[in-house]
Design a protein that fits this description.
Blueprint: E1 2-7, H1 11-22, E2 27-30, H2 35-38, H3 55-68, E3 72-74, E4 78-83, E5 87-91, E6 94-103, E7 125-126, H4 129-132, E8 140-144, H5 148-158, E9 163-167, E10 182-184, E11 188-193, E12 197-202, E13 207-209, E14 212-215, H6 222-229, E15 251-253, H7 264-290
Parallel strand pairs: 1-2, 1-6, 2-3, 6-15, 7-14, 8-9, 8-14, 9-10
Antiparallel strand pairs: 4-5, 5-6, 11-12, 12-13
Length: 291
């Protein structure tokens, strides 16, 4: 059992880890990449650097600083999270358990540019299999994506629905697919329906009747994970207090996913707030357990 598990190893996640580790809490951070920070050619509006620094250099320096304090930094892709008093985090390498969870996995990913997708959001189009699989029990559904996250969402759906097909939208699969899940590689032309989505139409002229379309492009972002825990509202916005705490006990959010100024300085500040709030939460929890 880890005291604090942090999803996202950018400025927000690492900042939070520095605080929790210095407070004596066992801390694990995971993330798959340097995100938008690593794409910055040079940064010269951040305190403490006399000369510009590349985003990748700043990212790597942050990781080394956290590891020096005893933080465990992993390269694991998170598929899903759940809460039963403690947090269960499922990744491509296994499962972790933690008393507190900080999600700092960056801003919302761009949805695929498919005609009809936005129109049917909330009307058959979903971004969370855990949340909405129940509504499609006994029916045929599809998952749009071509990576391990799409496979993970499809596997969850397969236990509830009649059939699930992964639509790669013209791409090759980048992950192994179980035999009970079909794959269709044709390019998608549009989603069609009346009040609810009912059909996926392809550029080759074929079509599929469906009751649900689940979007699982790339890796699971902060909003995807927040939805699974009930900490994101219907508009895709985090329900958070100023310190990053959420309505879910022990869950905190920080960084670009919370909106506002998308800058390293704000992400670091958010991480410090969330890390400090997590420390308070765990200390209060342990005090209550002793009493």
């Amino acid at each position: 059992m880890t005291d604090v598990f942090i999803i996202g190893k950018g400025p927000a996640g690492i900042s939070a880890a520095l605080y929790t580790a210095r407070a004596g809490l066992s801390t694990v951070v995971t993330g798959m990449s340097s995100g938008s920070l690593g794409k910055a050619e040079k940064i010269e509006n951040y305190y403490g650097f006399a000369e510009p620094v590349s985003g990748q250099e700043l990212f790597e320096s942050g990781i080394r600083g956290a590891e020096r304090l005893g933080v465990t930094v992993l390269d694991e892709e998170v598929f899903s999270v759940s809460w039963d008093g403690n947090f269960q985090i499922v990744t491509d390498r296994g499962q972790h358990e933690a008393e507190a969870l900080i999600i700092a996995a960056g801003s919302v990913r761009k949805a695929p540019d498919i005609p009809g997708l936005k129109k049917f959001e909330g009307a058959g189009v979903s971004y969370c299999a855990v949340c909405d699989a129940f509504f499609h029990r006994g029916n045929d559904v599809v998952v749009i994506g071509n990576g391990a996250y799409a496979v993970s969402e499809a596997e969850h759906l397969a236990g509830v629905v009649k059939s699930v097909t992964i639509l790669t939208n013209g791409r090759e699969m980048e992950a192994e697919v179980p035999s009970n899940i079909a794959v269709k590689k044709e390019k998608i032309a549009e989603l069609w329906g009346d009040q609810l989505v009912s059909e996926v139409r392809f550029e080759d002229g074929t079509a599929m009747s469906v009751s649900g379309v689940f979007v699982a492009e790339g890796t699971a972002g902060s909003t995807d994970l927040g939805r699974k825990l009930g900490a994101v509202d219907a508009d895709g916005k985090w329900i958070i207090a100023e310190d990053g705490s959420t309505p879910v006990s022990g869950l905190f959010a920080a960084g670009d996913c919370t909106g506002g100024l998308l800058q390293v300085s704000k992400a670091v500040s958010d991480g410090a707030e969330a890390g400090t709030a997590a420390i308070r939460y765990l200390r209060q929890k342990k005090r209550a357990e002793r009493e």
